[in-house]
Predict the structure.
Amino acid sequence: MYRIIFDTDPGHDDILSIMTALAHNSELEPLSFVTVAGNQTLDKVTKNILKVEDYLEINIPVYKGLNRPLVKEPQPQPAAHGESGMDGPILPEPQRKVEELSGVDYYRKVLSGNEKVTIVALAPLTNLGYVLKEDPSLADNIEQIVLMGGALNGGNINKYAEFNIWHDPEAAKIVFDSGIKVVMAPLEVCYAGGILIKETVRFRHGGKASKLVNDLFDFYCRYAIDRGWDKTAVFDLIPVLYLLKPEVFVAEQGKVDVILDGEDTQGQTVFTKGEGNHIVLIDANREECMKIFFEAIDTLDKRLG
Ligand code: RIB
Ligand code: CA
């Protein structure tokens, strides 16, 4: 059983990943959500996870993390996720509230405990970079960080960098240089394990969970459809799929370095195979990935009735 902290900026794909995890409560124990500025402002992404908790009838503690990167200015991405950060679903204002404790103080507290945790990082690494910079010993209680981020051959936010790393490269460098075991799911494996646009129609005829997925994809897939693609990546899904079934991925070991400067290279992740405690996922069995995802949503449909 993995005791998981989700570090997240919901975010359509963040929610789809979290839903998949929620369907597997015998393998994954979500301890908390810690939000961070990324896809949209901190307030907007925090409201999104609270809305989804109401809708899915779950009560996992939500902690507000940091509202801006360690050095750069926040750079929300309305083109990919809309003004709300989760355009598409129409959900009421949240009833659930965030915890009093800040996300940073929560990390200081839980990482000073005596039980190790797995962090599933689906967003810029600002929160982790901040707490590890302040107290590197907090790394001792992190079993591993399984993250969506990075790119091996070309970026989605500049020529070489992927958004989560680019948004806060200084924080990402702290995390990758911390000595913690990191499993990285770069852009390439997310596309390899992506969903066919035609597969998304299955969610039009399901239950309550399927309706949320359908409404998320209705907005999220426009980006791919507008570009004539027949497939899209559900980026943040991959770290959860890896925890559930690592054998559906091809992985390589080595060391990842984060580049901090250069217009085209800021946020670039340079992977050197060989020595190191970084695992980089380089390929995926797409059908197997989708089987896990589809079955998870079916499970939530049955659970929600
Ligand atoms: O580059 C994709 C990543 O950026 C995903 O985590 C998405 O949610 C955004 O945060
Ligand atoms: Ca995300």
Q: What stands out?
A: The pocket of alpha-D-ribofuranose (ligand 1) is lined by residues 9, 11, 13-14, 38-39, 122-123, 148, 156, 162-164, 235-236 (CB under 6 Å). The mean pLDDT is 97. The chain has one domain: 2-304.
